[in-house]
Amino acid sequence: MVASPQNSAQASTDASASNKEGSSHDATPMRLLRTHESERLERVRHTFSHVMAMAVQRLFPKAQVTIGPSIDYGFYYDFDNPDPFTEQDLKSIKKEMIKIIKTGLPVIREEVSREEAKARIEKIGEPYKLEILEGLQEPITLYHLGDQWWDLCAGPHVESTKDLNPKAFSLDSVAGAYWRGDEKRSQLQRIYGTAWETPEELKEYQRRIEEAKRRDHRKLGKELGLFVFSDIVGPGLPMWTPKGTMLRSTLENFLRDEQVARGYLPVVTPHVGKVDLFKTSGHWQKYKDDLFPMMGEDEKDGFVLKAMNCPFHIEIYKSQLRSYKELPLRLAEFGTVYRYEQSGELGGLTRVRGFTQDDAHLFVTPDQLNDEFLKVVDLIQVTLRALKLDQSFRARLSFRDPENKSKYIGSDDAWEKAQAAIRQAVESRGMEHFEGIGEAAFYGPKLDFIVRDALDREWQLGTVQVDYNLPERFGLEYVAEDGSRQRPVMIHRAPFGSLERLIGILIEQYAGDFPLWLAPEQVRLLPVTADHWAYADEAAAQMRQIGVRVEVDKSGERLGKMIRNAEKGKIPVMSVIGDKEVEAQSLSIRTRKDGDLGSMALPEVLERLQKGLSDRADF
After folding, report:
1. Which of 43, 217, 446, 501 is catalytic?
2. Quick check: 27 pLDDT over 90?
C-alpha cells in the first residue's frame, strides 16, 4: 500500500511536540517540508515506486513488498528480502526498471471487495499485504502494471509506464527500516530513488545533492570543531565544544537582548517534573510513548524528563494571584527538553533527544491578544532578518482538522477564536500565507514560518501559537478591572525553534562561513615569528575589550600553513603580523569575503570591527 509519510521539522516550540503528525518535535533529520511541485510529478514518482517494486520482485522472487510512497524528491519501497541489497543489485534493479518503462505497460486501477483482495493476497503468499489490508477502509483499490504485477494502493498514478522518462530517475541508496516503525518487528530494507519529469531536472537535483554534501552540517561541524557526539554519552545527545558553545551563546544573547527590550522576563525551570503535571496539560495521555521512561514506581509519584516548557511556566504564573495590571506577563527561557526519539530517526543536530528551545509563554487578557500576537510576529521577522533567512519565507496557518476533532482538546468556540486571531494577524501584515489543516498542536492553532534555504529546501523555523485550552485545564485566572476573576489567554512562541536544529540549518545555509557577528572565532592574528607575539597579544587584547573573539596563532608553523589553517577554519578576518606591522602599529588585513585589504592602522581596524559587530555586517 502506498501511504505518504508524515513530514516533520524538529521543532519549534512545545506545540511541536504535541503535534504528533509532525513527529514528536517537529524535526526533520533534515527531513524537508514538501516543495512546490506539480501533482503530475507526484504521480510520476508514485508510479516509479511501483515499477521499482515490480523490478525487485522479478529479480528477487523471494522479496516481499510492504509500502512504497512518493516522497519529497522521489520515492521509496520497503522490502523483506532474505539477503541485503548491494550496490550492484541497485544497478540491476535500475536496468530492469528501464525495461519495464519501455514496455509501456498500462497502469490500471481496480476496485475490489475486501474478501476478493484477501483471497488474491493469500494466493501469492504476502502476509504484509494482509496486515495492510486490515487497516484499509473501503473501497479497496489495486493498481496493476499491465497484467504482470499489482499492489494495494490508493493512487494516484500516471496512465502508462511510457509516461515515465527512463533518463529522469536514479536509485540512490538502501537503508534499514522497521515494519510499521516498530523496533520490535521485522527489519526491512528500504530502497530510495529520485524521479523527475526530465533529465535536466534530475541533473539539477544531483547537483544540489552534491552541494548539500559539501554543506552537510555533520561534516562541517566536525571540521570546524563545533560539537561532538559520544556513543558512551548516548545517541542524539550533542555536546558543544568551546567554539560551538560560543556560537550558541551568541544566538542566545542576540535573542535575549531583543526579548528584554520587549518586556520579557527570564525564568529557569527544572529538567524533570511529576507525571501529574503532564497529565494536567494532556501531554502524558497523548504522547506518553514519546517521553523518556518514567522514574518512580507508579504514575502517582512518578517523574519524567521535561519534554516541553509550557506546564512549568504555567505553574510560575499560578504561584500568585495575578492582576490585569500585570498582564501581559511574558516569561522566557532557553529551556532544555528531552524526547525519546527512535534511534533510527536521529540525524546530526536536526533530530536529537535533548535540545534547547527559545521558549516563551505570554499570558494576556483577551483584549491584548491581537496586539501581543503581532508583536511576536514582528520579533520573529527581526530574527529572520538578522540571520539573513528573511529573503524567502511563507507563513503557514496550522489549523485544526475539523473532520478529526478528537485529536484536539477544547471547545469549538475556543478554536474558532484562536484561529481567527492568527488569520487576522497575518492578513494585517500582508504576509504570504497558506493553510495547513491538521497541523495544529493538540491544544491550539499555530502560525509557522516556513523558510527556504540556500539549497532551495524549506524548513519550519519560528512559530507562534494561540492557546485558550491550557489556561482552562490549569484553572488560570487574573483579577480584572471590575474585580471579577477572568481567564487569561496564552501565546506560545519560539523564534528559533530549537538551538540545535537552527545551528544545523545555519551551518548548511552559510556552508560554515558564518557572518562576522556569528563566527565563533572572528579574527585570527598570524605573527610571523615569536618576535611578533607581543604586538599580536597587545592587538588581541584591544580587540577583546570591544567584544571581538580573537585568537593569536603561536603554533610556530610556517606562515603559509598558518594562513591555510585560518582559511580551513573559515575565520572571517585574519591578519599577518611582521616587522612592518609592529613598527607601524598596523595590521595587514585579509577577509574571506573580500580578500587582501592591505595594511590598516590598528585603531581603524578596531573601529571597523566594532561597527561590523554592532551592525551585524561584514568587516
Report:
1. 446
2. no
The fold for domain 523-614 equals Rossmann fold (3.40.50)
The mean per-residue pLDDT over the stretch 392-399 comes to 87
Q: Which of 353, 457, 492, 532 is catalytic?
A: 492
Query: For residue 61, what is its C-alpha cell?
Result: 522472487
Please name every residue paired with 397 in a beta bridge, in sequence order, or none if there are none.
Answer: 435, 447
Which pLDDT score, from 0 to 100, does residue 7 have?
29
- Please provide the average confidence, as pLDDT, over all residues in the chain: 89
The rounded distance, in Å, linking the Cα atoms of 576 and 611 is: 22
Contact of 359 with 495, CB cutoff 8 Å: no
Check if 318 is active-site. Answer: no
Its pTM stands at 0.80
Of 581, 587, 591, 580, residue with least CA distance to 543: 587
Q: Is 357 a catalytic residue?
A: yes
Of the listed 57, 357, 419, 465, which one is catalytic? Answer: 357
State pLDDT tens for residues 450-479. 888 888 888 888 899 989 889 999 999 999
Q: Domain map of the chain by residue range?
A: 39-196, 222-510, 523-614
Catalytic residue, chosen from 26, 290, 358, 359, is: 359
Is 6 marked active-site?
A: no
Catalytic choice (10, 14, 243, 310): 310
Our answer to whether residue 361 is catalytic in this structure is yes
Class of domain 222-510: alpha beta
